[in-house]
Design brief:
- This protein folds into two domains: 120 residues, Aspartate Aminotransferase, domain 1 (Alpha-Beta Complex), CATH 3.90.1150; 218 residues, Aspartate Aminotransferase, domain 2 (3-Layer(aba) Sandwich).
- The protein contains 14 helices and 13 strands.
- The strands form three sheets. Strands 2-8-7-6-5-3-4 form a seven-stranded mixed beta sheet, with helices on both faces.
- A hairpin with a 4-residue loop joins strand 12 and strand 13.
- Helix 4 packs parallel to helix 11.
């Protein structure tokens, strides 16, 4: 019970989102040098932002004293041209997670349901809870999103379904055929949100044409982010594509000026930087091979990934391992908040960053007598 005011009961029940541990916080807690810390916790791009984005940000610096374009006209036009849709089909966000929350506010209320998979982005549950909707979490099948079970969970009260492809934190992807069959099975009164934050880490031939589903189905919304492959996590930039009727409703509650000027400039500068994205993909696949080979050598169970992170089972000492890694200046993501207390998630870094993790892991495991 709150004191001095009365909060909504379903807000009081919410557990706040837990982010990856910041580098600066780790340095303060363990007496480390910020420059010596390797963060492999939040699935950020270890290459940083591309030069195309840096140049655009530098060019935009002189305009910081003015408010950004509240409608982000240039950004929406660039996205529309990239995906071959009208600009009216595009909405921008302070990261794609803002759009996830806004979409939930549009369609959810007490008495409705939101369906999502076990072991998926925790913002889905938070978005449903803050609107008083019933959360329906569908168990995975060997860590894979079970679309058949999710389809069975959709009923007359279901207004929203969240699907991540590839999924976080498991790293597993869904086939285009399975996704299309699921979308076709859902009634039009239920909105399907396809969260494609990690889609650039899939081989090109395995990336579904999700925009084609938007054209065919008025109840499909696709979200993308510039925080992952594009390396703009600190600028907070995301977008969604859907039919204009839905976009217009979300725009009614979108905060003013929700994408700052530098983020808008960076997006316009790098959205077509295919050379950078290809480099990101290749370095990530090399890193995946490096880390998966190490986990195999250590006889550790892991989920083969199609994203830029790996889910690894440590066992009951996962929390202690996390602490030992922090002491050595390596940040990974413990997953107790996901119901995976014996597992950790490791972001794929550059080869030197991965080697630093491997060295710290060996030392920490030896200290804990894990191996």
């Amino acid at each position: 019970m709150t004191q001095g005011f009365q909060a909504k009961s379903y807000i009081e029940r919410i557990a706040p989102y837990v982010a990856g541990k910041p580098i600066e916080e780790t340095a303060r807690e363990y007496g480390l040098n910020v420059a010596d810390i390797v963060k492999l916790a939040s699935n950020e791009n270890p290459l940083g932002m591309p030069e195309s984005a840096k140049k655009a940000v530098n060019d935009a610096m002189n305009g910081i004293a003015r408010y950004p374009d509240g409608n982000a006209w240039a950004v929406r036009r660039a996205i529309a041209e990239t995906f071959g849709v009208p600009a009216e089909w595009v909405i921008i966000g302070n990261g794609s997670d803002e759009i996830l929350g806004l979409t939930a506010r549009v369609v959810l209320e007490p008495g409705t349901k939101c369906v999502y998979s076990q072991y998926s982005f925790s913002v889905y549950e938070l978005s449903a809870q803050e609107n008083g909707a019933e959360c329906v979490m569908v168990p995975t099948r060997n860590f894979a999103v079970d679309l058949e079970a999710m389809a069975e969970a959709v009923d007359a009260k279901t207004r929203l379904v969240f699907i991540t492809n590839p999924n976080n934190p498991t790293g597993l992807a869904l086939s285009a055929g399975a996704l299309e069959r699921f979308i076709q099975s859902v009634p039009e009164e239920c909105l399907v949100v396809l969260d494609e934050a990690y889609v650039h880490y899939l081989p090109r031939e395995e990336r579904p044409d999700s925009i084609a589903w938007v054209r065919k189905h008025p109840n499909v919304l696709v979200t993308r982010t510039f925080s992952k492959a594009y390396g703009l996590a600190g600028l907070r930039a995301g977008f969604a594509i859907a039919r204009p009727e839905l976009i217009e409703m979300i725009n009614r509650i979108r905060p003013p000026f929700n994408m700052n000027s530098l983020a808008q400039a960076a997006v316009c500068g790098c959205i077509g930087d295919e050379e950078f994205l290809e480099r990101v993909y290749e370095i990530n696949r090399e890193g995946v091979g490096q880390l998966e080979a190490f986990f195999t050598e250590q006889n550790l169970d892991f989920v083969p990934t199609q994203a830029n992170f790996i889910l690894v089972r440590i066992g009951p000492q996962a929390g202690q391992l996390n602490t030992e890694l922090l002491r050595r200046g390596v940040i990974i993501r413990p997953l107790g908040s996901y119901g995976l207390s014996e597992w950790i998630r490791v972001t794929v870094g550059t080869r030197p960053q991965n080697e630093r993790f491997i060295q710290a892991f060996r030392e920490a495991a030896s200290a804990l007598k894990l191996v």
